[in-house]
Amino acid sequence: MPLSDVLGHERVKAALRHALDRGRLPSALLFSGPEGVGKRTLAIEVGRALICEQSSNDACGQCSSCLRIARASDTLADLRAQAQASDEPSAFNLRLHPDLLLVEPSTETIRVEQARAIVSEVGERSFEGRGRAIVIDDAHRLTEQAANALLKSLEEPPAGTHFLLVTASTEALPATIRSRCQRLRFAALPPATIESALVERWGVSPEEARLRTRLSGGSLKTAIAFDSTAYRNLREELIGLIERWGELDELGRLDAAQTLADLDEPRDALRILRSLLRDVALLSEGAAEEHALNIDVRERLSPLAAGAFGKRAAELAEQVERSARALAANAHRGLVMDMLVDGVVAVSGLRGDDWA
Length: 356
Hints:
single chain; Zinc Finger, Delta Prime, domain 3; 6-stranded mixed β-sheet; 16 helices; disordered C terminus
């Protein structure tokens, strides 16, 4: 797709077109911002524009180079499967075109073998295009050795070679890497952009698109991958837990903690639980219902918001957020859930009829 077809980020796209048109695209760019907002897609399209045989500031979409990259992009799943079947980390340097490389983590990291393969390649002239692009996705996963191996190439790349680093965790990149790149900041996509794209491009019903958009956090990737059936089933279980929390005795709390710990995706459960508590807090403060993330279950949340529980919901949401951070840091799942349930009861200070 041309740059204009990438959703959102008009300011960033305009700056990139301007640089491409004048042949002044920086040799090392850092695309930073939230997950799933189109950073990698845009980086690949910039690479395609560099290689395009017809246009100076965008991909024409019709020349042989553009078509070859489009076909390769459509088969990324196959390319990844081939890489996983290989014993070589450099197999995850996925070739979309002789002059366009997409580098992805080989396991949890981008390894030094991958970086050395890149350095070896950029020492040669481009194969076909007027330039070469190296897109490094999840660049914050570069090992220290891999980052060090890339430093000289980033600082003094051959003429026509451009590095496009993509990350959602800029601060996790070594300062030596950040200092050699010009940074382009990406923001979360506007809700209207995501909602209309889901309906028009992916054929999602308007009601479903509205729910996905509210829960996506501005990430189109999250909205597309959203499993509404699984979400609703898990949410129903969590709403029931909230409604029962004030009635739990000691055994009931242990059972609730075990239920949370046994879930297949406990971090997703905590994210949903936090969104429910956030909505209860908003409704308790008199916010308009359309501001709720889970607007389709507001009839279940409104009674909770009207009681004493609603006044403590924001603090309870913070408790859930702390638990989510603990899980992300690989804390013991059962212990985290035990502490969460005990903490919720302690923060709420509610029992029985006081709950609602």
